[in-house]
Backbone:
């Protein structure tokens, strides 16, 4: 692989809630066209980092620059959360699945294409009168959604109510929905949480195929080391809001700071446990 | 004492018996002061008398009634569970049945004045039902689809009514000229209410909208120069039939003289009925169409999860304001009709009670269901009317009906949501049969 181009550039990001510093002077580069994982113990500030990135929080200080392939450099911290998705095309999923529970799977994926469809419907007027331009856009949106569902093996559940489906499937639907927004950078917040080993193996494959076949860039928060170590090209470790290590999976596994953060001071004994538990590949 | 529980499996006979005994015991406790004891006038002095046989009969009736009711409720529950287990094919069938009921109601509504051509009371009541149906459909956009609990909907109804009243009495505007303007005014009031409440949800939004409804009413009561205060606005012109007034024959051509009919005051009543039917059907068409457009799906998505909507790139501000504006516009149009029909309006017609009834229609009907609103309006408007024979027990009957609906249909009369679009399976046989 050629030396990767930087897609996202995070510079001195700090987020304080009152006296608590959730993210402390974090700088990070996310290369384009690969999978970057952010890991760390509970409360390390991973989800806060995601929220700052996607406009749900306004960072106290620092900059988040996105090198958008078509729209130049965008300052994500100045955008509203919906603009991060619609303009910068940085799309996220959530730690606890946030589907539109009473709507069908297909509708969930169509809602994700709201911006395009709403523009095509000209303030709903073209849609109200069923003009051909809008009908074409709607047909195209359904095609995109159906295509996604077929690829994620969800097509026979297209008309099912999303909230009634099993949890693992809901996680996949959430990813499918995020893909329908047409992301440049896909941010997944613990996509493997609550999945069984077979489902997380499927997830690994899905993530890799997205990067390989569609050139998507993925930023991942994950606790499941079998996912992190298998799919990531690049790992960043946070602890107490600070970056304590960064690099390839092999490098991270042998980093003394990381082992200390995860397992405390008596590293050797615990490290053996970690190895035997199959955390390392 | 056993608590009333909606059983997951049909209970045994012993359980049913215990349940009925418990209910009969409560009835006994309540019945001692209310039925068992009574006052009788004996020689000018009131004395307490007992009616134990009546009380005993009452308790027995409650006991047997509870046994029967329990049996019916369980049977319905079991059937519903079976239906829920059944596949998407049933869902489709359900949609077809709803559509047929809808068309049936529409047909009946059209034929109604022909069936009762001379019965002013029936047509008047039907007109009232249709006003509530239209208000329910309007509020359904805000509460049912967008999930924004609005307790001050009557404010928009009032804005529409007063807009028409003022435009017609002060500036001589006709009904059809004022209709869009009043709708637009109400919509802008919707946005005025929407702006400060953008960040609020649920209970907090409900309180603010409740306050807004009251503010509008209090302004109407106190701003005498504009609204006439508590005296209201009288002699509001009635709508005409394409310029032909419904007046006794005179110099100008009237509806009766133009069509060579004998003048009858009923013509106007029937015309008003068809007018509100048209307005309501327009509302229905408009809302069901919007629901299948991106904006409608956005409303429903926002009801489900606002944060996820933002993450999908949706500008939630616009989505919310559009729901408020369109709901308010429909309420305003209903208000114009109300003013034109009554010929007189005062703040008295726009109390919180009205908001509560409209909201009850939406909730009882099943949030988001168009046909549910029709059925709930029928229930809520007709029950008090039918109950007139029962005099003081009228509101009791009304309350009982509401409680029964909520027991049997906790999510409203029609709670099944129809998807806005479907992925039609190529092989129809396998559609949704997998569990």
Residues:
């Amino acid at each position: 692989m050629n030396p990767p181009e930087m897609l996202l550039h995070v510079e001195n990001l700090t987020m304080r809630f009152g006296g608590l510093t959730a993210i402390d002077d974090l700088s990070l580069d996310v290369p384009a066209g690969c999978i970057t994982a952010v890991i760390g113990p509970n409360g390390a500030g991973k989800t806060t980092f995601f929220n700052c990135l996607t406009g749900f929080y306004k960072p106290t200080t620092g900059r988040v620059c996105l090198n958008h392939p078509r729209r130049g450099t965008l300052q994500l911290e100045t955008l509203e959360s919906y603009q991060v998705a619609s303009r910068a095309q940085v799309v996220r999923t959530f730690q606890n699945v946030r589907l539109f529970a009473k709507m069908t799977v297909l509708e969930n994926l169509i809602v994700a294409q709201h911006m395009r469809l709403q523009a095509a419907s000209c303030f709903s007027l073209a849609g109200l009168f069923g003009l051909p331009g809008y009908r074409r856009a709607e047909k195209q949106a359904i095609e995109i959604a159906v295509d996604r569902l077929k690829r994620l093996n969800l097509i026979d559940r297209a008309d099912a109510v999303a909230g009634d489906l099993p949890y693992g499937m809901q996680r996949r639907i959430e990813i499918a929905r995020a893909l329908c927004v047409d992301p440049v950078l896909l941010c997944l917040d613990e996509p493997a949480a609550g999945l069984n080993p077979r489902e997380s193996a499927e997830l690994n494959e899905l993530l890799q195929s997205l990067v390989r076949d569609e050139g998507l860039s993925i930023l991942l928060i994950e606790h499941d080391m079998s996912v992190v170590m298998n799919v990531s090209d690049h790992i960043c470790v946070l602890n107490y809001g600070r970056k304590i290590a960064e690099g390839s999976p092999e490098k991270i596994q042998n980093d003394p700071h990381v082992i200390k953060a995860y397992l405390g001071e008596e590293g050797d004994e615990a490290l053996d446990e970690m190895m035997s538990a199959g955390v390392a590949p | 004492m056993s608590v009333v529980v909606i059983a997951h499996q049909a209970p045994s006979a012993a359980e049913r018996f215990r349940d009925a005994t418990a209910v009969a015991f409560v009835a006994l406790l309540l019945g001692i002061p209310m039925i068992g004891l009574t006052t009788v006038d004996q020689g000018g002095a009131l004395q307490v008398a007992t009616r134990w046989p009546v009380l005993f009969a009452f308790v027995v009736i409650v006991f047997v009634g509870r046994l029967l009711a329990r049996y019916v409720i369980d049977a319905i529950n079991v059937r519903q569970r079976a239906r829920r287990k059944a596949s998407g094919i049933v869902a489709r069938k359900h949609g077809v049945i709803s559509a047929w009921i809808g068309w049936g109601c529409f047909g009946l509504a059209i034929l109604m004045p022909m069936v009762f051509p001379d019965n002013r009371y029936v047509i008047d009541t039907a007109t009232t039902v249709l006003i509530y149906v239209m208000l329910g459909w309007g509020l359904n956009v805000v509460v049912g689809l967008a999930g924004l609990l609005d307790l001050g909907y009557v404010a928009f109804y009032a804005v529409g009514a007063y807009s028409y009243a003022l435009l017609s009495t002060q500036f001589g505007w006709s009904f059809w000229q004022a209709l869009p303007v009043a709708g637009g005014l109400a919509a802008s009031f919707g946005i005025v209410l929407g702006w400060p409440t953008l960040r609020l949800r649920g209970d907090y939004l409900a309180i603010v909208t409740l306050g807004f409804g009251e503010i509008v009413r209090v302004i109407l009561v106190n701003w005498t120069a504009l609204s006439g205060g508590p005296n209201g606005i009288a002699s509001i012109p009635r709508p005409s039939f394409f310029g032909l007034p419904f007046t006794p024959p005179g110099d100008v051509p009237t509806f009766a003289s133009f069509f060579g009919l004998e003048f009858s005051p009923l013509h106007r009543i029937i015309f008003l009925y068809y007018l509100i039917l048209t307005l309501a059907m327009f509302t229905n068409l408009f809302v069901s169409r919007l629901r299948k457009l991106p904006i409608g799906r956005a409303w429903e998505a926002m009801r489900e999860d606002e944060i996820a909507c933002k993450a999908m790139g949706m500008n939630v501000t616009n989505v919310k304001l559009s729901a408020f504006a369109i709901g308010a516009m429909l309420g305003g149009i209903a208000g114009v009709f109300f003013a034109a029909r009554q010929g007189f309006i005062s703040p008295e017609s726009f109390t919180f009670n009205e908001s509560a009834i409209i909201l009850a229609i939406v909730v009882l009907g099943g949030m988001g269901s168009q046909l549910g609103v029709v059925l709930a309006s029928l229930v809520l408007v007709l029950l008090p009317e039918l109950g007139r024979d029962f005099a003081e027990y009228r509101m009791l009957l009304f309350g009982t009906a509401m409680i029964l609906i909520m027991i049997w249909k906790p999510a409203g009369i029609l709670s099944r949501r129809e998807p806005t679009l479907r992925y039609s399976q190529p092989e129809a046989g396998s559609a949704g049969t997998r569990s």
Confidence is low (pLDDT under 50) at residues 1-7, 426-435 of chain B.
